[in-house]
């Protein structure tokens, strides 16, 4: 009797502790609801207009009423057998206050957009298009579930609204998708991404380790190192210890700041997401989709803490497995009645991928028995009461709610805009910070769309002030990337080009105030590097509205790849034109049978009066070193012809260097004009916006022609011109002006 009394007292004490904990949880929940931003709670769902909704929204058909009775009967049996589990989310009320079975709220839809044919596009669109609203109580599912059409109309909803809409699109696209009612962590339920890295940052690529070359025993030994290795080792050890201690301190401080606070409601927070089973659409493995972020997760992810039930447009399944260890040990074979209890047992079961051994185990008698049972208890799921889901091209293009969406990540911030909302075509911006408080900006990365100058991405390093622009194919100068600090000619730059679109196979051009280096691709002459050194700027020349400063060329150096068709001693590897010193240096490729390489030097090689007849060659003007001394030297006549070829090549290289410099200045001036007058292009397939832009262009052209007609009459056309005649005269004048400018540029370049 004493033992029984003690047990009763212990049970009473535990009950009191549980009640106290529940009261504390309720107060914390109320505090959480108060801490939700007011912008997310301003919208009043009770004030929406439901008068124009179809009749299926306002009443149930006979089949739906029968389905509700079956669901109530199932719920009674479930609560009797599992009294400790939470109530199921079976038939919440819709926007009209009518109870609807959750499976009939899923409306499979395939929209006419290629992006929505894949799960990544569907999940990304839903996460961007809708605004997240928290549940009224984080411990219980919502009392209502609105139709996907209403959610799309007002562009907001909770996790259950997100999941039903996403599941409707995925099932319509052919995926074996299900809505999930379960439990998740606080970060997933509240869409808190501040402790996660932005997916756009990614992990840095690992640099492959270089293989160590075998030591050559014939290599010249370096001079002995007279420093004490022990002292160097001691200094390196102390430095490594201090750096490690400093890193550990910084890591511990950062971990303390980054470590999430203890959640007293862990395992009790209700959340909804989407389950995609393997099989259909060549999905190799079952996975989850968080509808708030649009990201996929493994079924063993620790953020998903348990599952109550899943459903699609065909049936409803209750999880009968233990979720003490989360979802990592769950079996997602919905046809297994031991692990999953189904509401409508006569409905076709989901198709699972069976192995050959499993198919052999299923005998014909077992298949016949299951078919007889299904025929006896069959009940067809009523069709969805939701109206067809429709998204207009303008709505699909807008993506973000109110045109803008901001997401905070760990040490970064991601902003998204709808296309054509910003005048510069900006659609996405990622700002990277050095601290967790997001105050010190390190890097800014911007994405653009529909730019006529083909600008795609811009990266700005706030520490070095370096700007890198990346272009799509189609730029007027075939630019691929442009790195700069300023668009002025004297500042440094690096330009990359689309090699396939250029005749000279130019890949990259790097320049500074007095130097320029060009890198080439696969050329017929095997040239791959050209280095040009300039002197101080001279007089300024105006050409075609741009300004070029003529700079004297001091040196030109070219490097060539090996030409296997020539012997190594005749194949030039490098040639240097020292113009101010009147000297030309040739270095040939290394022959495997020789220790040194062959080289040739020409002194006083520059032409004094500019005529080829005065080019001469003496023994004092020529110096040769042969890598293979046994081979007979070249004749003086051969060297004289080579000198003539080099003088002609020097002239051509000077012209090419001037053309390269002029092209750089033209690119810089064009980039200035493109940034000053940004224009956005409109695709002809975007019919609505294309009509608007073409109409606006016609109106501006008509205004220009109205101003142009009186001017043409004054300069000689006495009769009144029609708009077509004025347009023809204007085009003719512009073509004549362009022809004159081209001739003027050619004359200046020739001078």
The secondary-structure class comes to alpha+beta
Q: Gap between N and C termini, in Å?
A: 119 Å
Gyration radius, in Å:
38 Å
Biggest sheet record: 16 strands, antiparallel
Q: Using DSSP, what is the number of strands?
A: 27
Task: Give the helix proportion (percent range).
Answer: 25-40%
The overall average pLDDT, rounded, is 81
Number of helical elements = 15
CATH class of the domain at 55-200 and 264-342: Alpha Beta
> What overall geometry do the principal axes of the alpha carbons give?
elongated
Strand order in the sheet with the most strands: 10-11-12-13-14-15-16-17-18-19-20-23-24-25-26-27
What is the beta-strand fraction? 15-25%
- So, CATH architecture of the domain at 55-200 and 264-342? Roll
**What is the CATH topology descriptor of the domain at 55-200 and 264-342?**
C8orf32 fold
Q: Which stretches are low in confidence, meaning pLDDT under 50 for 5 or more residues running?
A: 29-40, 204-210, 353-357, 372-377, 541-547, 607-613
Coiled coil: 1-28
Subcellular location: Cytoplasm, Cytoskeleton, Flagellum axoneme
Biased composition (Acidic residues): 355-372
Protein name: Dynein regulatory complex subunit 7
């Amino acid at each position: 009797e004493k033992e029984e009394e003690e047990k009763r007292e212990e049970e009473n004490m535990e009950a009191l502790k549980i009640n106290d904990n529940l009261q504390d949880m309720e107060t914390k929940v109320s505090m959480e609801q108060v801490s939700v931003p007011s912008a997310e709670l301003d919208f009043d769902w009770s004030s929406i207009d439901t008068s124009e909704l179809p009749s299926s929204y306002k009443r149930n058909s006979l089949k739906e009423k029968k389905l509700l009775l079956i669901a109530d009967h199932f719920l009674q049996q479930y609560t009797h057998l599992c009294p400790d589990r939470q109530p199921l989310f079976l038939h919440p009320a819709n926007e009209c206050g009518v109870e609807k079975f959750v499976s009939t709220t899923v409306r499979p839809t395939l929209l006419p957009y290629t992006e929505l044919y894949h799960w990544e596009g569907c999940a990304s669109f839903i996460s961007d298009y809708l605004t997240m609203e928290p549940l009224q109580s984080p411990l219980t599912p919502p009392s209502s579930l609105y139709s996907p059409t209403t959610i799309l109309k007002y562009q907001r909803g909770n996790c259950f609204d997100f999941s039903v809409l996403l599941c409707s699109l995925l099932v319509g696209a052919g995926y074996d998708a299900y809505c999930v009612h379960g439990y998740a962590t606080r970060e997933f339920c509240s869409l808190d991404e501040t402790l996660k890295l932005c997916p756009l940052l990614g992990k840095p690529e690992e640099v492959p380790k270089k293989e160590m070359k075998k030591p050559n025993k014939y290599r010249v030994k370096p001079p002995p190192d007279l420093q004490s290795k022990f002292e160097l080792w001691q200094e390196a050890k102390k430095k490594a210890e201090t750096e490690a201690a400093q890193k550990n301190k910084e890591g511990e401080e950062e971990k303390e700041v980054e470590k999430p606070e203890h959640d007293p409601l862990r395992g009790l927070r209700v959340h909804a997401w989407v389950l995609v089973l393997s099989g259909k659409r060549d999905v190799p493995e079952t996975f989850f989709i968080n509808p708030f972020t649009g990201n996929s997760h493994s079924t063993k992810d620790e953020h998903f803490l348990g599952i109550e039930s899943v459903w699609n447009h065909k049936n409803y399944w209750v999880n009968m497995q233990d979720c003490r260890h989360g979802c990592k040990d769950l079996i997602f074979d919905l046809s297994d009645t031991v692990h999953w209890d189904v509401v409508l047992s006569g409905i076709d079961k989901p198709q699972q991928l069976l192995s050959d051994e499993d198919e052999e185990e299923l005998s014909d008698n077992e298949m016949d028995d299951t078919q007889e049972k299904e025929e006896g208890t069959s009940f067809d799921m009523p069709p969805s009461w939701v109206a067809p889901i429709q998204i207009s091209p303008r709505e699909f293009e807008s993506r973000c709610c109110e045109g803008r969406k901001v997401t905070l990540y760990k040490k970064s911030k991601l902003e998204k805009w709808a296309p054509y909302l910003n005048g510069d075509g900006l659609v996405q911006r990622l700002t990277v910070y050095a601290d967790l408080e997001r105050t010190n900006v390190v890097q800014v990365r911007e994405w653009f769309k529909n730019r006529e100058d083909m600008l795609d991405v811009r990266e700005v390093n706030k520490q070095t002030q370096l700007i890198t622009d990346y272009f799509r194919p189609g730029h007027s100068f075939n630019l691929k990337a442009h790195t700069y600090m300023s668009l002025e000619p004297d500042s440094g730059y690096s330009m990359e080009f689309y090699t396939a679109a250029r005749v000279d196979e130019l890949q990259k051009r790097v320049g500074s105030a007095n130097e320029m280096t060009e890198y080439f691709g696969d050329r017929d002459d095997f040239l791959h590097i050209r280095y040009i050194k300039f002197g101080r700027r001279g007089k300024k020349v105006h050409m075609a509205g741009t300004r070029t400063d003529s700079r004297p060329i001091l040196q030109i150096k070219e490097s060539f790849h090996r030409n296997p068709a020539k012997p190594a001693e005749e194949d030039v590897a490098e040639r240097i034109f020292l113009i101010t010193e009147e000297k030309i240096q040739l270095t040939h490729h290394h022959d495997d049978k020789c220790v040194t390489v062959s080289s040739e030097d020409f002194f006083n090689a520059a032409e004094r009066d500019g005529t080829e007849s005065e080019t001469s060659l003496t023994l004092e003007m020529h110096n040769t070193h042969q890598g293979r001394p046994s081979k007979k030297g070249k004749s003086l006549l051969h060297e004289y012809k080579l000198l003539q070829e080099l003088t002609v090549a020097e002239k051509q290289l000077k012209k090419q260097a001037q053309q390269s410099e002029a092209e750089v200045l033209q690119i810089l001036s064009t980039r200035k004009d493109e940034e000053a007058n940004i224009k956005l292009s409109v695709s002809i397939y975007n019919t609505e916006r294309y009509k608007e832009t073409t109409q606006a262009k016609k109106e501006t052209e008509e205004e220009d022609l109205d101003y142009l007609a009186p001017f043409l009459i004054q300069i000689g056309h006495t009769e009144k011109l029609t708009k077509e005649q004025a347009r023809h005269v204007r085009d003719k004048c512009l073509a004549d002006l362009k022809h004159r400018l081209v001739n003027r540029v050619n004359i200046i370049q020739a001078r």
